[in-house]
Amino acid sequence: MNYRQFWPLSVLLMTGCTDYQWGWYVLDPSTEQGRTNLSFLLAGFNDTIQISLISMVLAMSLGLIVALPALSKSKPLLWLNRIYVEVIRAIPVLVLLLWVYYGMPTLMDISLNHFWAGVIALTIAESAFMAEVFRGGIQAINRGQHEAAESLGLDYWRKMRLIILPQALRQILPPLGNQFVYILKMSSLVSVIGLSDLTRRANELVVNEYLPLEIYTFLVLEYLVLILLVSQAVRWLEKRIAIPSY
């Protein structure tokens, strides 16, 4: 397909020089129809936020577990880490989502609903990126911190939990915030398997109202608000846990 042929249409859309009749009445809160449509769209926040938060927490936990072998001197563990990270990062999120939703119930003889299929797929996909974030953050800690913890008689797990990870968290907080934004955006893909998130509800309303530009514009604003709130929360948390300089 030659996408260059569509550039005149893009110019016309940006300049407003088209015959398209905007129908913002579909989302007008002063009318009963508009209020109903707005309520329907806004109800999707619940599933979007829930699946993003749960996937983020699980991906952080799994990512930390995957990252630890990369810090080992054992070559089999190092190879295990690299294989997992490279394979998972190479699989498109949508493909992984469809495989989890349709493949896991068949192969493992289990019942899996839309929500938890989305959680599992997003967790697996994100865990590979989280593993790299944790690996980089832990390796950035000065070797003297490790030696100081060992001189106090701390074993490996207590050293990581009490000394290394708290310091690494300060360094990896911005990347973690970026990854949460990534999960929020990727959660829109769960709409293809039927979860009533923001994107799914927008698609359903488009089918009923035949006003895609208005509805998808509102959908963009919904995700924009979510991501701006997350960005502000991450910046606030950065300031809260930052080490003061005197």
UniProtKB/TrEMBL annotation:
Segments traversing the membrane: 49-71, 83-102, 114-134, 176-195, 215-237
Keyword annotations for this protein, in alphabetical order, are: Amino-acid transport, Cell membrane, Membrane, Transmembrane, Transmembrane helix, Transport
Superkingdom, according to UniProt? Answer: Bacteria
- Its membrane topology: Multi-pass membrane protein
* Predominant cellular place of this UniProt entry's protein: membrane
Q: Which Gene3D superfamilies match?
A: MetI-like
Q: Where is the signal peptide?
A: none
Report the protein name in the record: Amino acid ABC transporter permease
